[in-house]
């Protein structure tokens, strides 16, 4: 039984965590908000504390904003498509009876634990490199002209790298969901003569729908802030500049803090839209 | 599954699954093999698979590179430091929310999670500015604090879900037997909570070890961990595939092993209990 005494003790125990997160949320975010209305270019010694919405107007009307938004959408969208369809297929495959299931699962999950800079550089050099990459050797083996992935299809290359990292995550979550499926229901459907495709369409997929939604939301939040993979492969060149990368460049490379901060606020708002949906699902689950 | 499985079917599924598993694992396997080759063999066309003179010289070379041991120590300090600092703050909070839930507990938990959704670029410049102002730019303590803060919501959340599985009756029984708050925590809760805390520690060391936004942008030389050390290979000179592979293996091997042990916790930790 929670007494008044234990309640106040509980409050004291929660306080440090709430306090540090509150400080972490509020101070930097307020500073960004403040800078986003200022003309602040530290390299040139410019600081004008209030220029209204000029930064936002400049950010939205610049051609780099629209292209970075499209790049972000393409990148996140295609990675989601690959990881969700691949993840459902892999999860169903891993749920089948087989020899060495545990080992296969370990093999499939491994890429998720690889440091982003490592996976990006390994793919960039040992697979995509036009002179010495394995893909070039394969092209030559089949008598084809080697293809320079990172300069000819840079967005595709980054999508491959990041999808490889996140497919294990989707697989693992969806496998957990598949395993909670009531097998009697499937057996009954099978005995009633439902073909495999209808069993998938009408029993498995509806059962997975919530897990799929969760995977989409969580991945979207992480994918919106992809950084290292772009940093070590193309450094934002060749149309791989996402919104996150554009803000990074404005803030740290060209040191236009005002403009970059406006972009940062835009990124925060976009991420929050996704977060609201995720919170709803998580919140509902807390009640049961 | 109670359905009869024909051996042929099982062999077919085994072949399929192993093929996909090996395909996913192949880049790691290839990096592993390349790390034992000489640079010339590493770029041989057609590729050499297993039959070459295995050498450890790449590992020796990487170890000898002046900044590798420092990067390793930084990675360990930052990953372990931020995790334990996080645990220190999160255990009391999660304990209180799990055992003395109030009307606002759910809101607090969800609010904590929402801080995890904050995009890093949104606070990039203020953080750089604050770090410079406090004189902690490129220091381990800065990275420990920042990574603790970005992972704190996950730590609190995981601990909360573990603590909630501890039946409250046990606490009541202990209280009836006259155990005070201190005895309750020390002798009743701690032993029951330890496995959950251990899993949380493991997953968060992995997340902190692989974090590659703040660790790259807030460090230059002194506090640069392995993520930044590996990123320095993005501007290569001469032949370097074998050395890159050796450095990569050194950076990922311990985490890969820890990761395999914490697969199950991964689902719990990264879906915030939304998938069971």
Automatic annotation (TrEMBL), chain A:
Q: Topology relative to the membrane, per the entry?
A: Multi-pass membrane protein
Keyword Transmembrane applies: yes
Family per record: Belongs to the binding-protein-dependent transport system permease family.
Transmembrane ranges, per UniProt, are 12-37, 73-94, 106-123, 155-178, 211-238, 258-282
Q: Name one GO cellular component term.
A: plasma membrane
CDD domains tied to this protein: TM_PBP2
One Pfam family for this entry, by name? BPD_transp_1
Instruction: Name the chain's protein.
Output: Trehalose transport system permease protein SugA
From TrEMBL, chain B:
Membership in a protein family:
Belongs to the binding-protein-dependent transport system permease family.
The answer to whether keyword Cell membrane applies is: yes
Q: Which InterPro entries does the UniProt record give?
A: BP-dep_ABC_trans_perm, MetI-like, MetI-like_sf
For this protein, the record's Pfam families field holds:
BPD_transp_1 (PF00528)
State what protein this is by name: Inner membrane ABC transporter permease protein YcjP
- Tell me the compartments it is located in: Cell membrane
The annotated topology with respect to the bilayer is: Multi-pass membrane protein
Q: What is its main location?
A: membrane
Biological process, per Gene Ontology: transmembrane transport
In this protein, which residues make up the domain named ABC transmembrane type-1?
72-262
Q: Which organism is it from?
A: Pelagimonas varians
The yes or no answer to whether the keyword ATP-binding is present is no
Query: Cellular component per GO?
Result: plasma membrane
* Residue ranges crossing the lipid bilayer per the database entry: 12-33, 76-96, 108-129, 141-163, 184-206, 212-233, 240-261
| Keyword terms | Cell membrane, Membrane, Transmembrane, Transmembrane helix, Transport
């Amino acid at each position: 039984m929670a007494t008044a005494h234990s309640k106040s003790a509980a409050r004291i125990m929660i306080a440090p965590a709430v306090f540090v997160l509150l400080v972490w949320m509020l101070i930097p975010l307020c500073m960004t908000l403040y800078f986003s209305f200022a003309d602040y270019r530290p390299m040139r010694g410019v600081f004008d504390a209030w220029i209204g919405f000029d930064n936002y107007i400049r950010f939205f009307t610049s051609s780099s904003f629209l292209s970075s938004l499209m790049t972000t959408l393409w990148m996140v969208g295609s990675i989601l498509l690959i990881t969700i369809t691949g993840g459902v297929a892999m999860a169903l495959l891993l749920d089948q009876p087989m020899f060495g299931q545990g080992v296969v699962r370990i093999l499939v999950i491994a890429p998720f634990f690889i440091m982003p800079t490592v996976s990006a550089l390994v793919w960039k050099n040992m697979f995509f490199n036009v002179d010495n990459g394995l893909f070039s050797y394969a092209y030559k083996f089949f008598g084809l002209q080697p293809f320079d992935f990172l300069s000819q299809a840079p967005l595709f290359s980054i999508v491959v790298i990041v999808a490889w990292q996140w497919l294990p995550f989707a697989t693992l979550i969806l496998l957990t969901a598949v395993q909670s499926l009531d097998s009697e229901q499937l057996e009954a459907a099978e005995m009633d003569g439902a073909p495999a495709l209808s069993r998938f369409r009408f029993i498995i997929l509806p059962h997975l729908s919530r897990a799929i939604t969760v995977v989409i939301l969580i991945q979207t939040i992480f994918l919106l802030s992809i950084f290292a993979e772009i940093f070590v492969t193309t450094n934002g060149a060749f149309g791989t500049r996402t919104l996150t990368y554009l803000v990074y460049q404005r803030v740290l490379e060209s040191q236009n803090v005002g403009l970059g901060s406006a972009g940062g606020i835009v990124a925060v708002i976009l991420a929050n839209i996704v977060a609201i949906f995720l919170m709803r699902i998580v919140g509902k689950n807390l009640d049961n | 599954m109670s359905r009869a499985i024909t051996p042929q079917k099982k062999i077919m599924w085994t072949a399929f699954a192993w093929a996909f598993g090996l395909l996913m694992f192949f880049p790691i396997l290839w990096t592993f093999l390349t790390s034992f080759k000489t640079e010339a063999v590493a770029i041989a066309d057609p590729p050499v698979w297993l039959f070459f003179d295995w050498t450890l010289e790449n590992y020796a070379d990487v170890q000898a590179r002046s900044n590798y041991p420092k990067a390793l120590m930084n990675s360990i300090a930052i990953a372990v430091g931020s995790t334990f600092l996080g645990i220190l703050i999160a255990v009391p909070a999660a304990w209180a929310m799990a055992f003395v839930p109030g009307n606002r507990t759910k809101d607090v938990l969800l609010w904590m999670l929402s801080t995890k959704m904050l995009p890093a670029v949104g606070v990039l410049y203020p953080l750089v500015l604050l770090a410079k102002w406090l004189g902690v730019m490129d220091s381990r303590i800065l990275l420990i604090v920042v990574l603790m803060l970005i992972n704190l919501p996950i730590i609190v959340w995981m601990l909360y879900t573990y603590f909630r599985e501890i039946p409250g009756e046990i606490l009541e029984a202990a209280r009836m037997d006259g155990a005070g708050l201190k005895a309750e925590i020390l002798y009743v809760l701690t032993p029951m909570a330890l496995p959950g805390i251990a899993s949380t520690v493991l997953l968060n060391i992995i997340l902190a070890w692989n974090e590659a936004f703040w660790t790259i942008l807030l460090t230059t030389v002194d506090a640069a961990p392995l993520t930044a050390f590996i990123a320095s290979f993005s501007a290569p000179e001469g032949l370097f595939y074998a050395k890159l592979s050796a450095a990569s293996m050194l950076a990922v091997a311990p985490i890969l092993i820890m990761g395999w042990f914490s697969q199950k916790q991964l689902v719990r930790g990264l879906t915030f209990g939304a998938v069971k």
